[in-house]
């Protein structure tokens, strides 16, 4: 009974989610393909998971009332008997209002099957896709006058099956004029489509056409009530959903994988991921990756992790839209705008963006992570933050905001006590404020730190400033 329900779902029209974005431009395109031009034999809808392929097709069929025979493929459909039986069943289920068609399809099933128990079929017939196609096409041409579609969804599940490849290619060669074949897949199907392409009988919708626009993402987020996703990588790494920190990741590496993919703005191959996150493992690293991806999708959403041909990518901007916030991204944007303003000698604009960047830096990037992959990024962002405080100190000095300038140098020295430029800048601030004693003590603190940490003396510039201070003290000026 459970198997029958499962099989029925495979050939039933998908139920649209309650939150469905109206994608009118794409619906218009489908309308043109289906109605305005009967020259197309094949509609290819290919894009990674999360692009709304099935929802778009189901929405169009529901709105237009266009008859479509659905068949949702899975890996078990590589079985020849099951594939043929369900393919015929999908025609029968959708076009049940045509009694002569149903009668002919039942007769065909009787010829193919040696018993009524699925999936036992006559091997002499089931191994002959050409013969099956000839019988099927003859039935469709005889009994179906209206235009209709056959949708093979999740085709990537059976893409490498030679029998199905032969079946589909033969079907396309002999497809009745009133029929449109739709293939929905996460990857391009392994089919010989050259003859159809030459005759312009193929229409394709790819990821560029199916990608959600910012307005559609905002509408989808509103309809689904998607939570706000906020990720903090500076300091203690934390992921917030609806302002609540995620404390239970099920497996610790799911969190590591999240930040690893977030750090890469391009798809990463599974071998590289395993080598970076599980360098000590061998065979078990593949299972660890699959488990981590499973839990990461459970936490952030199924469409959060895009997989394609062994490559993985985190696509949170596309999923959450303007409800996604990431401190590192915002830090980089603010820092870039500040540098552009500095090149234009616009201190006012630069200062605003530098302050924004400085507030985002709560500590070193992923400070509690000890993985090798994040060391270089940590160093890069640390240098950017040091430059941020440095530029803030210089702008404050030019503005004659001495107390503010001193505060920025103090922030820098808290991060790197051996930064001689920080000690020099702070000494100058103390002198401008008339605090010569503080300036002298700052030099002594600098000298002691450099000796203890690096066993070196302060540089010539610092020594020269200290010398002038001591001489002035001796002369009483």
From TrEMBL:
<feature type="domain" description="Bacterial transcriptional activator">
    <location>
        <begin position="326"/>
        <end position="470"/>
    </location>
</feature>
<dbReference type="GO" id="GO:0006355">
    <property type="term" value="P:regulation of DNA-templated transcription"/>
</dbReference>
<dbReference type="InterPro" id="IPR016032">
    <property type="entry name" value="Sig_transdc_resp-reg_C-effctor"/>
</dbReference>
<dbReference type="InterPro" id="IPR011990">
    <property type="entry name" value="TPR-like_helical_dom_sf"/>
</dbReference>
<dbReference type="InterPro" id="IPR051677">
    <property type="entry name" value="AfsR-DnrI-RedD_regulator"/>
</dbReference>
<dbReference type="InterPro" id="IPR036388">
    <property type="entry name" value="WH-like_DNA-bd_sf"/>
</dbReference>
<dbReference type="GO" id="GO:0003677">
    <property type="term" value="F:DNA binding"/>
</dbReference>
<protein>
    <recommendedName>
        <fullName>Bacterial transcriptional activator domain-containing protein</fullName>
    </recommendedName>
</protein>
<dbReference type="Pfam" id="PF03704">
    <property type="entry name" value="BTAD"/>
</dbReference>
<dbReference type="InterPro" id="IPR027417">
    <property type="entry name" value="P-loop_NTPase"/>
</dbReference>
<dbReference type="InterPro" id="IPR005158">
    <property type="entry name" value="BTAD"/>
</dbReference>
């Amino acid at each position: 009974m459970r198997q029958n329900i499962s099989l029925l779902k495979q050939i039933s029209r998908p139920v649209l989610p309650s939150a469905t974005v109206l994608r009118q431009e794409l619906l218009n395109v489908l309308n043109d393909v289906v109605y305005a031009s009967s020259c197309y034999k094949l509609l290819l809808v290919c894009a990674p998971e999360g692009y709304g392929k099935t929802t778009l097709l189901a929405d169009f069929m529901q709105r237009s009332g266009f008859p479509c025979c659905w068949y949702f493929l899975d890996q078990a459909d590589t079985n020849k008997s099951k594939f043929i039986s369900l393919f015929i069943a999908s025609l029968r289920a959708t076009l049940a209002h045509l009694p002569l068609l149903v009668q002919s399809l039942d007769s065909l099933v009787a010829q193919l099957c040696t018993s009524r128990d699925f999936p036992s079929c006559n091997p002499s017939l089931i191994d002959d896709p050409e013969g099956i196609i000839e019988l099927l096409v003859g039935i469709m041409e005889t009994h179906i006058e209206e235009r209709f579609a056959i949708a093979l969804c999740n085709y990537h599940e059976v893409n490498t099956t030679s029998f199905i490849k032969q079946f589909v290619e033969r079907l396309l060669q002999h497809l009745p004029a009133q029929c449109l074949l739709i293939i929905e897949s996460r990857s391009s199907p392994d089919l010989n489509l050259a003859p159809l392409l030459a005759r312009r009988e193929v229409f394709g919708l790819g990821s560029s056409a199916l990608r959600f626009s910012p307005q559609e993402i905002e509408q989808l987020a509103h309809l689904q009530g998607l939570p706000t996703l906020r990720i903090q990588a500076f300091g203690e790494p934390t992921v917030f959903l609806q302002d609540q920190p995620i404390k239970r990741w099920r497996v610790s590496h799911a969190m590591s994988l999240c930040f690893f993919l977030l750090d890469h703005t391009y798809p990463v191959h599974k071998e590289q991921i395993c080598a970076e996150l599980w360098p000590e493992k061998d065979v078990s690293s593949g299972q660890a990756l699959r488990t981590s991806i499973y839990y990461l999708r459970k936490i952030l959403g199924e469409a959060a992790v895009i997989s394609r041909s062994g490559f993985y990518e985190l696509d949170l901007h596309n999923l959450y839209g303007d409800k996604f916030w990431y401190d590192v991204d915002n830090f980089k944007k603010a820092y870039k705008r500040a540098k552009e303003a500095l090149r234009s000698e616009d201190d006012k604009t630069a200062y605003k963006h530098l302050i924004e960047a400085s507030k985002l830096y709560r500590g070193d990037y992923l400070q509690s992570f000890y993985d090798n992959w994040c060391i270089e990024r940590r160093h890069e962002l640390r240098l950017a933050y040091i430059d941020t405080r440095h530029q803030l100190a210089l702008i404050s000095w030019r503005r004659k905001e001495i107390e503010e300038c001193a505060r920025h140098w103090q922030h820098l020295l808290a991060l790197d006590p051996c930064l001689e430029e920080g000690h020099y800048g702070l000494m100058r601030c103390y002198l401008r404020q008339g605090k010569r004693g503080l300036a002298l003590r700052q030099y002594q603190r600098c000298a002691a730190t450099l000796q203890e940490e690096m066993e070196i003396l302060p540089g010539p510039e610092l020594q020269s400033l200290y010398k002038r201070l001591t001489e002035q003290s001796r002369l009483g000026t």
